[in-house]
Amino acid sequence: MRKESQDLSWLGAIRKRGPLSNEEEKSYQRSLNGLQGEVAFDQLYRHFLGNETDCLDDVTLEYKGDVLQMDKIFKDKNTIHLADIKNYQGNYVYENNALKLGSTTFANDIIEQARRSRRIFTRLFEDYHLPLEIQNVIVFINDQGRITLYDDLPEIVLNYEEIPGWLMKIRNHTQQSQEFDWQNLIQKYQISSYATSRICSTERLNHLKKGIHCEKCGSFSLKSTRYTFQCLCGHVEIKQIAFLRTICEYGVIMHHLPLKRSEIIKFFGEKYSSDYIKKTLSNYFVPLNADIKDGKYQNYGQPFNYWFENEATRLEKLEKRKNWHSSF
């Protein structure tokens, strides 16, 4: 499953409860736009290739002191493709080793960034005597954007309408492919994705809106039944899951600190039962100390769907409560 970055999660969690600065809002929109582009390419990739080829998504790799991040890595015959996905709008040109939009020249050279990644992967594969070629693929995924090349480049650069035909070629090559253990080699040097450097101050936390918001529309005006929260938009969420989701949201915002019971109770506000919050923490979160009286729990700094992704069976049992019609 492709995951949003911790930086995007942090900005999104703050944004639901209070205003972002101009810089934060721009970063949020830029990161969200990038993620949406990656997801759009994933959908095209699955449509044309299904499970016929192996791939790795969102790879952050460190090798001999060099760190890089790749949106997608996959194999075609004896070539490993390193895919950079750009969700850009507008008519771009690449000329004289520079990316331009109108009269604006971008400081970041997307081609040189791609070549740096290729050099690192080439060295890795050569050091382990893995006879695979490395090819950069730069994908302009937005149908409202395109790039025109005036430089002769060895990299594959695709506009939106060119993606399906190119993926069809990949599909036709898969059965001719030799097998090499390339994924395990990459995963050997894979590291955690970049953690956000953003910190929410206590003052800012105190000014954020308190309580549980609708998972779908973001409204804080929820009707409570015995087992669910119901929103005017029509969305219904199991109460226990809503509490778990909100605790995880606090964890994202305060990722640099342990989960602290007293602070989480304040984060929910007076409307919500402190006993229910304590019980939820005790049943679902890992205490930092043997003596749980200090009320501190492990904080993974992740949204609910990532934090609890390995507990599907347990959560499915909770979901059955939607069919229980008792109310307060």
From TrEMBL:
Annotated NERD domain residues: 33-147
Pfam families reported for this sequence: NERD
Name of the protein in question: NERD domain-containing protein
Source organism per UniProt: Tetragenococcus koreensis
